[in-house]
Amino acid sequence: GQQVMQIPQYQHVQEGEDFTTYCNSSTTLSNIQWYKQRPGGHPVFLIQLVKSGEVKKQKRLTFQFGEAKKNSSLHITATQTTDVGTYFCAGPYRGSTLGRLYFGRGTQLTVWP
Amino acid sequence: DSGVTQTPKHLITATGQRVTLRCSPRSGDLSVYWYQQSLDQGLQFLIQYYNGEERAKGNILERFSAQQFPDLHSELNLSSLELGDSALYFCASSVRDRRGGEQYFGPGTRLTVT
């Protein structure tokens, strides 16, 4: 069935290293959203990309939306301990008249000091 | 603080029992979504309401039901509880219902079934 996949499921990095998580959908998305969930917390909206090939930056975080609007990536430069958490991608399927978002399973990032 | 409130924060109950989880969306948001998150699991979409009407259903068990009231708060009812229902239950809200806009999550209710 239709689904959103995310890899890797887990990533352990040393502080200062870069980190990338990838998101792939079996179906074209209207937009892609990224959320961060800190340990013990709730998902928090980070950003939304709408256009094909769009790239957005938030300080050390770079988000990309693929040309076909089926994949996306989140890259963190020079990770810090504050980056620890699970990063989820999500999006509504193009053409859907529902507001439902399809979430990836998330990438759990651990940063060693 | 997302502006979405959920009560209670924690709930411990026994198998076979019934519980009600409550959610108040952000001011102005008409859509409410319910999710279940088990240990090391992603977010499982349960159900969506928009302005009092059910909009979409996900992997919601028949033992579970939800509703959204005229004041837009929502309740998720879980009955005949089983050990496997132990999880974090999140409510999220958004302004739109059809365009898949960003969602704002509440702090969650941690349900433990013993």
Report on this model:
The complex is a heterodimer of chains A (113) and B (114). Chain A is mostly beta strands. Chain A is built from no helices and 11 strands. Chain A has strands at residues 4-7, 10-14, 19-25, 32-37, 44-49, 55-58, 61-65, 71-76, 85-91, 102-103, 107-112. In chain A, the strands form 2 sheets. In chain A, strands 2, 4, 5, 9, 10 and 11 form a 6-stranded mixed beta sheet that branches. In chain A, strands 1-3-8-7-6 form a 5-stranded antiparallel beta sheet, with no helix packed on it. Chain A is globular. Chain A starts with a strand and ends with a strand. Chain B is mainly beta. Chain B contains no helices and 11 strands. Chain B has strands at residues 5-7, 10-13, 19-24, 31-37, 44-50, 53-57, 64-68, 74-78, 87-94, 104-105, 109-113. In chain B, strands 2, 4, 5, 6, 9, 10 and 11 form a 7-stranded mixed beta sheet that branches. The chains are: A mainly beta (113), B mainly beta (114).
Please render the helix and strand layout as text.
The complex is a heterodimer of chains A (113) and B (114).
Chain A lengths: L3 E4 L2 E5 L4 E7 L6 E6 L6 E6 L5 E4 L2 E5 L5 E6 L8 E7 L10 E2 L3 E6 L1
Parallel strand pairs in A: 2-11
Antiparallel strand pairs in A: 1-3, 3-8, 4-5, 4-9, 6-7, 7-8, 9-10, 9-11
Chain B lengths: L4 E3 L2 E4 L5 E6 L6 E7 L6 E7 L2 E5 L6 E5 L5 E5 L8 E8 L9 E2 L3 E5 L1
Parallel strand pairs in B: 2-11
Antiparallel strand pairs in B: 1-3, 3-8, 4-5, 4-9, 5-6, 7-8, 9-10, 9-11
